[in-house]
Amino acid sequence: MRLLYITNGFPFPLTSGYLRHYFLLRELGTRHEVTLLSLAGPGFEPGDTAALEPFTVAIETFGGGRRLSLGGKVRRRVRTLAPGSADGPVAAMRDAAGALVRDGAVDAAVFSGKATYPVLAGLGDLPVVVDLCDATSSRLRGGIRHEEPRRIPAVLLEYASVRQVERRLLLRGDQLLFASARDRDALLDGPHPRAVVVPNGVDLDAWSRTTPQLGRDEVVFTGKMSFPPNEHAALHLAKHVMPLVRQAVPGAHLSIVGRDPTARLLRVADAPGVTVTGLVPDVRPYLERASVFAAPLHFGAGIQNKVLEAMAMEVPVVASTVAAAGLRAGDRSEPPVTVADDPAATAAAVVAHLRAAAGGAAPDRAGRRYVEEHFVWRGSAALVEQALGAAVGATDRSWER
């Protein structure tokens, strides 16, 4: 099949938020002719395309502008909603996609991104699989109560604009992809004949333990720390959980590992037993040294890649209900993690794992097995292929009317 793959951020390097598309492209490109059209964000380097050239027949990037503030994102989103509107790079992408469709060069498209919504206008009646991935509006709604008052109006406006784009994407997609059942249910209120849960996978060769023992007295949390759910979770850990942990285990230490820590987060780096690393060349050594991975997210959406990676590295996990919900494979599976929500319960669970590690507990093979069984990229790509087949084979589009 000749596929057009559209993303709103270039899917490399893998420190970006687009690793889902990198691995799906890598799998699909071995069996299909894939043309990639991608918006290029502020961190894009022309050499990044080399990583995807073996899996594509053509790559075209658009833009490469500055990083937008929250206000800038909202203004762009609102402009996106206006009929026929698109800014320069998005308009150029729409025209390039339209030319491919008119030339009969593609059979179907995989489409992702909210900022790229106007590009759909160039696809005509081409069969389209829309990858919504996570329920962004659900994450924004859940995070409002944790926002600074001065930011709430902008977040509310972003929520409203995102929700409108999501509704339009739901209508246009011949097939709809979601990273988890939670995200599907947030936007569709349950299973739907056009909806497919396609979880993220884990590169099991890369995320593989090399040491036979857990670390001692070490709590780890990883992620992009400017991302609001991660920032809030890290602050919660440092301010409310670790003081309780250190009452029971005085030598306990928390490593907050990940790029772009906010000013608020950097201020907690002076707290006893807390280190904020910022960007590191490799997260895996921190997981090798961990006794327990803590993920006390209070709001969020999508699948929790950072937790899956910790599980693949056989690190025991303490997760909030919100984080654990993003680890379910399909509608029924329960991840092998300890679930705790309030500070006292989270601290007690962390202390239990710290003491177990100090007593010589083995790494958590159950977590690794769970990832091996449910979160493998080859299986996820197979689900995308099934969705593409259904989209191409669908002749009844009466649901649009």
From TrEMBL:
Transmembrane segments: none annotated. The keyword Transferase applies. It holds the Pfam family Glyco_trans_1_4. Keywords: Glycosyltransferase, Transferase. It is an enzyme of class 2 (transferase). This is Glycosyltransferase. Its EC number is 2.4.1.-. The lineage of its organism: Bacteria, Bacillati, Actinomycetota, Acidimicrobiia, Acidimicrobiales. It comes from the Bacteria. Signal peptide: none annotated. One of its GO terms (molecular function) is glycosyltransferase activity. Gene3D superfamilies: Glycogen Phosphorylase B.
